[in-house]
TrEMBL record:
Cofactor(s) of this protein: Mg(2+)
Organism, as annotated: Brachypodius melanocephalos
Record PANTHER family: ATP-DEPENDENT 6-PHOSPHOFRUCTOKINASE, MUSCLE TYPE (PTHR13697:SF59), PHOSPHOFRUCTOKINASE (PTHR13697)
Lineage of producing organism: Eukaryota, Metazoa, Chordata, Craniata, Vertebrata
Protein's name according to its UniProt entry: PFKAM protein
Keyword annotations of the record: Cytoplasm, Glycolysis, Kinase, Magnesium, Metal-binding, Transferase
Gene name of the record: Pfkm_0
Cellular component aspect of the GO annotation: 6-phosphofructokinase complex; membrane
Single annotated GO MF: metal ion binding
Gene Ontology terms: biological process: canonical glycolysis; fructose 1,6-bisphosphate metabolic process; fructose 6-phosphate metabolic process
UniProt cross-references to PROSITE patterns, sorted A to Z: PHOSPHOFRUCTOKINASE
Length: 307
């Protein structure tokens, strides 16, 4: 906010008529501040579009962010390679730390894809009893034909249950049954070639954003000047249920946990029970027709009234 005067001066100096901001949670917060600054600085009254792009997938208003799929693929491939390294070694458990800030998307989805025995995330609080239960489960697993384990941990899932703590706990409690190794994947998750999904997703988002911003410039142009101060002139372009939609940034404020930099509601949390089912835990899951499924919508046909 302290740079508003400098930003406004540069917008005027370079004749900027609109902004397309590509970025993560910081881009979202920056967009909110620019909208708030419109009341004081007329130069900020220009169309604004934010495109979510972060491996953390933690931007409110969008189910997916550009880059998250690439990071997820990198983590999954690395987990597969690490598991393969234990092919000649029996009874070994790997503790792997993933990125994502407070958002557990990468840990959860990579856990599903790589067949993890557990995935610790901030959104689902856990205790030492849960850790012990996971150790006991792995102890029983070592009696089967699959004598290896994989545990994922989101980097900020807990202030006290760190990667080192979990590694030491598993090593001590599993002594004589299995040995333990840990890996912090680090910034390799932010590198690599983009996946086909991310490439196509980025192309679609870019094209849609340019078309929207062009229309807004025409709509808000008056006597050679651009003036846009309505809520729908500053939007975030996000994917919602397989559709690309524009949502006013101001309306997304209520959906955001600013302290932990995550949306208050996240669709992928509903997949967490499947993680335990695949790891062969005994849990109950509602699979009836009345269960709510995110990707299915029922259309109710209302018969026309007869004259």
């Amino acid at each position: 906010k302290k740079y508003f005067e400098e930003i406004s001066a540069n917008i005027s100096k370079f004749g900027i008529h609109a902004l397309i901001v590509i970025g993560g949670f910081e881009a979202f917060v920056g967009g909110l501040e620019l909208v708030e600054g419109r009341a004081r600085f007329e130069e900020l009254c220009i169309p604004l579009c934010i495109i979510p792009a972060t491996v953390s997938n933690n931007v409110p208003g969008s189910d997916f962010s550009i880059g998250a799929d690439t990071a997820l693929n990198t983590i999954t491939i690395t987990c597969d390679l690490i598991k393969q390294s234990a092919a000649g070694t029996k009874r070994r458990v790997f503790i792997i730390e993933t990125m994502g800030g407070f958002c557990g998307y990468l840990a959860t989805m990579a856990g599903l894809a790589a067949g993890a025995d557990a995935a610790y995330i901030f959104e689902e609080p856990f205790s030492s009893r849960d850790l012990q239960a996971n150790v006991d489960h792995l102890t029983e697993k070592m009696k089967t034909s699959v004598k290896r384990g994989l545990v994922l941990r989101n980097e900020r899932c807990s202030e006290n249950y760190t990667t080192d703590f979990i590694y030491n706990l598993y090593s001590e409690e599993g002594k004589g049954v299995f040995d333990c190794r840990k890996n912090v994947l680090g910034h390799m998750q932010q590198g690599g070639c983009p996946t086909p999904f991310d490439r196509n997703f980025g192309t679609k988002m870019g094209a849609k954003a340019v078309a929207w911003i062009t229309g807004k410039i025409r709509e808000c142009s008056r006597h050679g000047r651009i003036f846009a101060n309505t809520a729908d002139s500053a939007c975030l372009l996000g994917m919602r249920k397989r559709s690309l939609v524009f949502q006013p940034i101001a309306e997304l404020r209520q959906q955001t946990d600013f302290e932990h930099r995550i949306p208050k509601e996240q669709w992928w949390l509903r997949l967490r029970p499947i993680l335990k089912i695949l790891a062969k835990y005994n849990i109950e899951l509602d699979t009836s027709e009345t269960a709510h499924l995110e990707h299915l919508t029922r259309k109710v046909l209302v018969p026309e009234a007869t004259p």
